[in-house]
């Protein structure tokens, strides 16, 4: 077991009710049963084609052949084709571009299952999906017709090519160049690194959505344009011609070892053509569409991998006998299942709180995405603002705390957890990249404190805090939930007051204002996940009160309430500790004498 | 650079002054210069023979040949022999058994260097050293003469063989059996797993210090005896005979891949002889000598690996240019070194605070070990009590927070950190085992709360808190240190009051009393490391005030004070958060309905 469909159903049906989406014109063609059938089909697909290869794709890894090719796992082709056939590349796209117009909530519920089953392989086709979405949003009709259908069929791999060796996270410093050839065609020259899915054996062509600078463009991010750069370019006669896109290597990594990470060289023989997407110099805002979705996707992947690790360790804890409770002094009594040890329960509850809390936040984001694409006016704007502020949070909390959760999964298995015989060590290794992909934790935190909390005069944050208060108000009158509702309100207020403190520095010393952005992120994340847990607990409490359990066991709902309490007692107090750091008057991370660090 | 000799010198000379040890009769044959020369010789040895193989020993790993043999790295033989020759196996042993009678502080300073350079290879000869120490402490004259000299020469590998497949951490459930053959000879039958160094190509023989149960022994840990079980047993004629010790496999692991982890089968052909050490049924207390030293050793190893990761990321941060400070709006300005980014400084300071703080605590323990072996009466007793309470703490803090520090090292390098091209990912993988070796974090925490804080009516804890107050009193009048001294006192009081709260459960519900032992461990650890940092800062402040810097740059000492402040502002507030968890009246980890976890 690598994830729990009951939890997913609870999220989709009760906590973040998809029913409200299905009333909207965009999704009117779907009902709940159809949606859930899609989710179940994803589970069947993952069980059959993905989960069985999780370990082997890691063990075999991928290897660069020294001359432009990368040997990938033979199963990969089946995985990508099956995903395409199942609607897991084109599912969220509109009918008019050949999509299935599913809510992202459903599309990403399927992807959650794939991520939990085999996160590396999911990356390939989810990248293609994101790249195709970008082309459909901003590309010309001809570009869409040329590239998107092949991508939807899983025949052509999509990628995003941003990072350059010298620039890293700093897109301002991108130097890949583009020289006009007429129309949307440009001659491209440059190098990109860390390009996931950039070369392998399972697809016929590679469509690199690439940021580059048109000759004479203004400096900085305002001079960046977006190009489609295929490995083989379609010629007027319908044939494909090698487009001078050379894979110069594959980075070997500590995790996601079955997922290629390439170094690409464009135009080394002066024959690489890129097709400008949309207008010149607007590449960054375009790319941010894909990037924002990718950030939610990475957060969700981290949560999904943490979920898989949780279930692996839970199963082990239910089967493994070892030791006795402290109260049992008789060594002749048989050993107990380790799940009875309070410390093991603590490790399992911590994992459950992190993994299920993160997945709930991801679903909140998916739902906001759907709402902000299917509503209008003020309502649309508010959904979008909430999504904007939650995006860096779901990305960061899930990846940072997901790693911690996977460490606890390893720990639950003890020495066995460290061996290659069990999957938890792979989850732990895979997870580490999630806090780096699509903008590191540092970058996400700058985005949160430097952009999102101040945008539109703080409206996004105000909306978020109001949502929290709303949840607290719903929960407060419920049986046993009052103190948690009060605690959430108090922590929401504390976020506001810490921000007030930090903002004093913003006008005169922006470096100092942002210096502890990551600690602020940590504080806010704890509070946001507490909000998700109170939401889940209030839903569960309502179902329990109504006695409306259907076939779901009572323990399922009681477990949500229990885990909420656990989160509030074991995790949430650390939000206040972060606040203590943030409101301290000393400024310790603006050192100019770096020898103090030596 | 993988560690910093200046920091080590500061610890040995100023913070935990070795001068007080060198006055004791046991160490009267040594002066500071000789001690420091030993440390420098360790550095030269590590530079030449260990550090260059850190990556390769991981890449090549170790492989089981299917018939009892394990292929290890060809350099291993040189490493072990050189370590032996340098005095790094016998160094801490007494003259009378062929040792060099160095303080453990110096012996472990050398080992710190080896651990930072190549932690896997250090394991081999440090195990031999510990095993030999156990034989010299409790073995017969004949046993000592038979085994110890070969071990000191690095020709025979020592191991500790405790864990059995069905028992894991629960030594009560050990089933390996021993049948008397006369004298100290017993016929052994059983299996042990996770035996580090249990079989490889660099030694001629293997000396397994093994826990087993003599037929008819009382149940539980009171019926466990300690045996020497060599792979080849010395015959009366001086020859060696295969002793029916079969290596049935090597566990493949996510880290420490160059360090063998074997599965051993004793007596499958009914011809395995073990030699009883000391008295029957006293195996566990004997083994605890080695185990306690090994726990300090694992803590110190974790700290050392975290130190190596810190230096790898610090060097990178000083060389890598990327992005601009938030206050720099001009994209035409050249990118800045990443060490100038506050978030990178935060990551580096966190690592420095954890790694140097842990090494300081390890040196505190090493010094207490020396004092408790070289003093007498009440004084000896107090040193021993302090060591007893600090042992689980240094083991746990260094391994848990060391992993977090190494994650920050990876993060500092961004995507590069996740690739096999840089060492930080190896540090991260290697470190994960440290919270499992020699008793998991859960076991250490039970030891702290269940035994160490209550032993001798709480005297160990009282001594520890008194030491903290003493440090606070020293620091309080110093320039700028008052608020930190007060904060440490306050946190020491909070430990006492949390314990008072927990102890209410001890008489009637011991399971509940111990249920959050790990959270208590976390709280206490933060306070203990704060104490180490205040000690270091007070030392540094005193040296700065006196102007007695010698050739050490001023920034070195200022950096200690700065890092202390950082620890108090960024880390220590989490001690209070742990206290909030611990004093909450709800009991959430004593679930009997495990379906709530599903």
Which CATH C-level class of the largest domain in chain A is it? Mainly Alpha
- The CATH superfamily of the largest domain in chain A is Butyryl-CoA Dehydrogenase, subunit A, domain 3
User: Tell me, what's the shape of chain A?
Assistant: globular
Order of helices and strands of chain A: HHHHEEHHHEEEEEEEEEEHHHHHHHHHHH
Mean pLDDT across the residues of chain A is 97
N-end to C-end Cα span of chain A: 47 Å
Spatial strand arrangement across the major sheet of chain A: 4-5-12-7-6
Please bin the fraction of helical residues of chain A.
Answer: 55-70%
Notable traits:
homodimer, alpha+beta, Butyryl-Coa Dehydrogenase, subunit A, domain 1, Butyryl-CoA Dehydrogenase, subunit A, domain 2, Butyryl-CoA Dehydrogenase, subunit A, domain 3, 5-stranded mixed β-barrel, two-stranded antiparallel sheet, 18 helices, globular
Blueprint (SSEs and pairs):
Two copies of one chain form a homodimer.
Chain A: H1 5-15, H2 19-22, H3 32-50, H4 54-60, E1 63-64, E2 70-71, H5 75-85, H6 104-138, H7 141-152, E3 156-161, E4 177-182, E5 185-196, E6 205-214, E7 224-230, E8 232-234, E9 240-242, E10 245-250, E11 261-266, E12 273-276, H8 283-319, H9 342-374, H10 377-412, H11 424-431, H12 441-452, H13 455-475, H14 482-503, H15 510-515, H16 517-546, H17 554-571, H18 573-583
Parallel strand pairs in A: 3-6, 4-6
Antiparallel strand pairs in A: 1-2, 4-5, 5-11, 5-12, 6-7, 7-12, 8-9, 10-11
Helix pairs in contact in A: 1-9, 3-6, 5-6, 6-7, 6-8, 6-9, 8-9, 8-10, 8-11, 9-10, 9-16, 9-17, 10-11, 10-12, 10-13, 10-16, 12-16, 13-14, 13-16, 14-16, 14-18, 16-17, 16-18
